[in-house]
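Re: Re: ligand-bound prediction request (bumping)

Still looking for help on this. To restate: I need the protein modeled with pyridoxal-5'-phosphate bound, output as structure tokens. Inputs repeated here so nobody has to scroll up.
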Amino acid sequence: MNNFNLNSLIRPNVKALKPYSSARDEFKDFDQDMVFLDANENPFENGVNRYPDPQQRTVKKILAEQKGVQLENILLGNGSDEVLDLIYRAFCEPREDNVITLPPTYGMYGVLANINNVENKEVLLVNDFQPDVDAILKAVDKYTKLLFICSPNNPSGNTLDAAIIENLLKSFNGLVIIDEAYVDFSSEESWLNKLQNYPNLIVTQTLSKAYGMAGIRLGICYASAEIIAVLNKIKPPYNVNELTQQRAIERLEDVVVIENEINIITIGKNKLLEELLEVNYVETIYPTDSNFVLVKVDNADKRYAQLLEKGIVVRNRSSQPLCENCLRFTIGTEQENEKLIKALKEM
Ligand SMILES: Cc1ncc(COP(=O)(O)O)c(C=O)c1O
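Reply:
Sorry for the wait, this slipped through. Here it is.
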């Protein structure tokens, strides 16, 4: 292993911080027939008059069982975007530290760097969207705290090579965040199974994609108990609301329904991939392990506008590095996919 030392990565103010202690943190024994007069809530029951569990224990218990991890390895957030922001705020000193991101990738890593006033060192993916280990390690200096890896990657769709990621986990002394927002669409193994091997590994997942719950905002962070404890210290006390917790519990138990939806999306994707071969202005169809496909066309602005005319909104990714004239198509229902295919062939 490298010289990873979590303590040396934590911001001094976070280390020194005495976290806010909420009423529900101080007294959490919900099961007893107690009278709760400690949180200045309205006592009349309507289902949400009480503050939610700040540690979301029921949601975490289900996740822990399903994923084979312990409760102390899980932190939940208001979407994975909140989780990613917490990671910045715990470990990156504004105007001093830096992070490494690997464009073309999910834009929020860079936006969060800007919000937190942290330098973002961009090291482009190479060779069909794989990390360039030498260039990444060259970019690392003593202020580099975080390395963001998105796998499967948005917008390219591919899984990043496991041996390359392993090499980075071993060589980089900071934290490696592997964003697995799309992992449920992939046949590749999740990095969750490697948490024990790498104390510098953070895996993020979300209920927004395969789980079909983008509207409730629930992001998940898996890491060592030590890393989770640091993030817990700075998270807003009630960051995951009661309605979200309730809906997540219901949905997480719908394992068969979710699997069925993923299968249907995968069948739709394979059909779209085949049909795209017949569209003469499609120049490249990039391999995808996600619920979307990136395609290079002759003129992305023109094709985007034509699709819009036909009532179909896709994502134009042309402004991203290495994505010139690229459109990203999310896989929809069978009818939606057919509408897209028909429109593409007519244009
Ligand atoms: C790679 C990646 N990570 C995270 C997110 C956001 O996830 P959430 O909805 O949990 O904030 C997205 C959304 O598009 C994404 O593409």
